Amino acid sequence: MYDDAWYSYVPELQQKKDGGASQSVKHRRRESLLRQQNGTNHISEPVDPILDIYEEEQIPKGPPSPTLTRRAKSYSDFYDVARAYIHTEFQLKKSQDQLDVLDPARRRDNVANRYYLYEDDLLNATQEEYLLYRDQLSLSEQHLDNLLEDTVSALDLLATLSDSFKTVESQSRAFQAQCENLLAEQKRLRNLADEVGTNLQFYSYLEPLTRRLNAPGSGRLVKSDDFLGMLLDLNACIDFMDQHPDYRDSATYKTRYISLLERALTLIQTAFASNLREVTDEVVKQTRDKEHSETAEYALFYGKFESLVDRLGPPLVKFLTTDEFAFGHCDDHVRRGAYVLSYHFLFNQLLEEYIKSRQFVVPLVQRKLKKYATSTPSPETEFKLFSRRCVQYVLDICHNEAKLTEDIFQSGPLMIEYQPEKIVGSVAEKSSYVERLQKGFAVHITTLVNFLKPYLGNRDLHRVADLIGWLETMYMSASEGNDDVDRPLEDHRKAAYILLNEHLWPLSDSLFIAAAAELEHFKPTEEDLELPTIVNGRTKSKSQRVSENSSAQNGSSVSGGVSTAYPTVKSAIDLLILYNESRFERPKKGDVLYEIVHQTTESLQRAATTIKRTSGILNAQVFLIKNLILIENLFLTHEIPDSVRQSAELDFSPFWAVIKQLQDRRQLLNPLAYIKPLVNGELLPAVVDQVLDARKEMERVLVQQITGFAKYWQSKITSNNRRNTDEALKASVEFDKLLEANFEENTRVALWRMLASENKMADAAADLEDHGLTRTLKDLFAGAAGGIAQVLLGQPFDIVKVRLQTSNQYPNALEAAKSIWVKEGPLAFYKGTLTPLIGIGACVSVQFGAFHEARRRIEAYNISKNPLSPGLSYSQYYAAGAFAGVANSVISGPIEHVRIRLQTQPHGAGRLYNGPLDCVRKLSAHEGVLKGLYRGEAVTIIREAQAYGVWFLTFEYLMNADALRNKIDRKEIPSWKIAFYGGLAGEALWLASYPFDVVKSKMQSDGFGENQKYKGMNDCFRKTYKAEGIRGFWKGLGPTCLRAMPVSAGTFAVVEMTMRAIN
């Protein structure tokens, strides 16, 4: 393009405009579009021209020569003309300035003259210059327009080229992606070809392996070097087919490979069994022919079998002694295929074959034990030496068996622990091969125990305990906590533990329990119950003197306190010490300790009762305190563990929790609030495991006796001290002599401190009531007996009551009874008796059991609040009875519903139900169990709570009032009074709850569906009142009250007398 220097210089001109305003005109070059910033009209400042350097010329002295300015014909010509003109002007101006400097006057004249002289020339020159510049600008504008068009064309070309480059780039990228895809496909095809080639191995391996395993003489394969490799290849093929189920014929090939694997494993089992059988037959034959010494027997029993390893061959030995094929063991985290089950099936067969092959040792052990018995002069009298010799021999046999097993199998599959979850199928139950091998050794332990049973049949506890102590000392205690135990001692310890844990310890526990049971049947003599007497200034009893004499003669080390103890206490102390003194931390059962302590406590209480009848309560208390303290001290000194036993009992805490919640919500008397807890089973007692502690029972009795004993002497000494100091002193001396005669120094001091203390130990003697499962069972049993009596006495009256309540065809009770007698016969009065006979018996059992349980809970609560007044208030008696009624309603609701349906159904061919079960089934079919069988349950709960609250309240009030009035114990009230008070309570029961019973009977005899009259309890109340008035709620009260007297009397009489009998 053009060079920019030609238009970079623009001369400055001044023009005069008509406005008189002078304006400087400055020409600028428009910046190229390529150099302009996007979106702006800014024009950059022009570049300053490079000024020419002119050399100074000589100033002419004459006027300038005339010149004619030539008009430029082109841009370059214009440039030359402009430069020449400017140069000429500059020279003229320079010459004139030099003249003016020399002559100022002349300079002024010259200026004026020159102005006038050149005025026209200047105007013409200016005009020409103006025209010149105008043409120049026009040409520049045209040139710039052309330049701009060229620039736009260049930009369009560049944009087109940019689009082309982008297109080429996108095509290049697409081509690159296609090339990469082609390369990936090529790689995939190469890998696929390699994989196909690899996978074909798993298919092609089938035929040659099938020929080898099914060929004649294939049994010799187990000794070939590649046999184990063949097994591993089969495993790999099965794994491959298992991992690729979508491959062609994978299931078929998998089945055939598994079949071939089972064939190969069968060869292993056959080879092992045949070699084992050959060795066994050879050893049995040699042992049968003649007797051998112990060394020869060991060589036969174990040396021959150790040579089995050489017969099997290296592959089979490696299979049995390494863990290469122990699939599924504890450290095996590899996912295994379906072949694992086949291997473990083989392991089971090998194990059974091996255990079976060792059975020939059992009769040989029996023969050896018999030989020991014959060689011992008297096994009965020399049982200790004889039994230890037998045990030692059997333990050696167990050690040899364990050593042989480890030599044959070493760390192979049969000596490893497995994870049952990794082994599917029935093999999981037999996954612990080590335990089964140990059980095989334990056969000899069982043989030993069976051999020693005749000598242990006399149930001699000390003989068994001596044998146990020797085993614990010799084998268990020696290796306990010692890591550096040699192999024979460790095997002996394991066998000894099996002998102890599975045989001797259970036998000793049973003997201890049997010995404890004998304490219950101990019958004391007069000497055992003899009171202390004074001998030589000391208080001694006859039995104490005899015991001391015998101890002196026999050198006994029994302490003086134990020597004067009750015989059952002596036996209990011996049993506890014998059971607790173990040289090995064996698992001690709380049942054994519980029976010993419990039976001892029971025997002491029975003896104390005898002493109380013959010598008074004070001596009985001294007797109990003295003997119970001995047992308590034994627990402390010998650190005997807790004597506890698990027992199932009924827990009523869920019921009390519901009652508390209803009470907090003020819904206690709302029958609808009981429906949800009843459906959820929250009103039923829960069966829980109760921990019975015999030591706590004993301590409770001890605290009770100590408290009574201390209170008696405290009151005696204190009352005498108020009246007469001498009498108080005499009472103190008497008390001290009594303590000296029966207790040691520490006990005497403790009792004196207790006596002197103002604390009366009310808190320690709080829980005096018998409780637990035995007490609950007694309550339930007595209640069941009362329920049966109730049904048999009240059924005739009950059927008359129901007929009157549910029908209007009888004018009164007498007419109803006569009609039933005439039309249905006398047996009709016992219609539907089977259901109440079973159900009411259960109901009354629950009533009395729940009442006494609630009474005991309330008493415990009262004791915690006020230990001096543990008795129940009459409101609490009502609450306990209401609780019994609510608990009973769960059973009585459906039972009475069935009974009412059976009693009100037509007689003869029109009968609706064929019996109680048929009635239950049909009622349950109507709207389910809750709306069908449990119809009227809400009003039943209200009736039961009100009825039995009043029932038990009335009876307890009458009984307590009679005992207080006559100043006798409750147990001394005669039975006829119990029956009379029970009858009165029955009358009060029905008077308080009869309207609810009427509504219940109407609802439970109502029809179903379209025949149903009452929508609910409130609707039944409303319709009954509307139809019959207030008298409708008391209809049938006469026969009910007539029935209530004998029924309730018989119930309470039977229950009370039954409780007295079983207690």
Automatic annotation (TrEMBL):
<keyword id="KW-1133">Transmembrane helix</keyword>
<keyword id="KW-0472">Membrane</keyword>
<dbReference type="InterPro" id="IPR048685">
    <property type="entry name" value="COG3_C"/>
</dbReference>
<dbReference type="GO" id="GO:0006914">
    <property type="term" value="P:autophagy"/>
</dbReference>
<feature type="region of interest" description="Disordered">
    <location>
        <begin position="533"/>
        <end position="561"/>
    </location>
</feature>
<dbReference type="InterPro" id="IPR048320">
    <property type="entry name" value="COG3_N"/>
</dbReference>
<keyword id="KW-0333">Golgi apparatus</keyword>
<keyword id="KW-0653">Protein transport</keyword>
<dbReference type="InterPro" id="IPR023395">
    <property type="entry name" value="MCP_dom_sf"/>
</dbReference>
<dbReference type="InterPro" id="IPR018108">
    <property type="entry name" value="MCP_transmembrane"/>
</dbReference>
<dbReference type="GO" id="GO:0006891">
    <property type="term" value="P:intra-Golgi vesicle-mediated transport"/>
</dbReference>
<keyword id="KW-0999">Mitochondrion inner membrane</keyword>
<feature type="region of interest" description="Disordered">
    <location>
        <begin position="17"/>
        <end position="45"/>
    </location>
</feature>
<protein>
    <recommendedName>
        <fullName>Conserved oligomeric Golgi complex subunit 3</fullName>
    </recommendedName>
</protein>
<keyword id="KW-0813">Transport</keyword>
<dbReference type="Pfam" id="PF04136">
    <property type="entry name" value="COG3_N"/>
</dbReference>
<dbReference type="GO" id="GO:0017119">
    <property type="term" value="C:Golgi transport complex"/>
</dbReference>
<dbReference type="InterPro" id="IPR007265">
    <property type="entry name" value="COG_su3"/>
</dbReference>
<feature type="compositionally biased region" description="Polar residues">
    <location>
        <begin position="544"/>
        <end position="561"/>
    </location>
</feature>
<dbReference type="Pfam" id="PF00153">
    <property type="entry name" value="Mito_carr"/>
</dbReference>
<feature type="repeat" description="Solcar">
    <location>
        <begin position="872"/>
        <end position="961"/>
    </location>
</feature>
<dbReference type="GO" id="GO:0005801">
    <property type="term" value="C:cis-Golgi network"/>
</dbReference>
<dbReference type="GO" id="GO:0007030">
    <property type="term" value="P:Golgi organization"/>
</dbReference>
<feature type="compositionally biased region" description="Polar residues">
    <location>
        <begin position="34"/>
        <end position="43"/>
    </location>
</feature>
<keyword id="KW-0812">Transmembrane</keyword>
<keyword id="KW-0496">Mitochondrion</keyword>
<feature type="domain" description="Conserved oligomeric Golgi complex subunit 3 N-terminal">
    <location>
        <begin position="133"/>
        <end position="278"/>
    </location>
</feature>
<dbReference type="GO" id="GO:0000139">
    <property type="term" value="C:Golgi membrane"/>
</dbReference>
<dbReference type="Pfam" id="PF20671">
    <property type="entry name" value="COG3_C"/>
</dbReference>
<comment type="similarity">
    <text>Belongs to the COG3 family.</text>
</comment>
<feature type="domain" description="Conserved oligomeric Golgi complex subunit 3 C-terminal">
    <location>
        <begin position="298"/>
        <end position="654"/>
    </location>
</feature>
<dbReference type="GO" id="GO:0006886">
    <property type="term" value="P:intracellular protein transport"/>
</dbReference>
<feature type="repeat" description="Solcar">
    <location>
        <begin position="774"/>
        <end position="857"/>
    </location>
</feature>
<feature type="repeat" description="Solcar">
    <location>
        <begin position="974"/>
        <end position="1061"/>
    </location>
</feature>
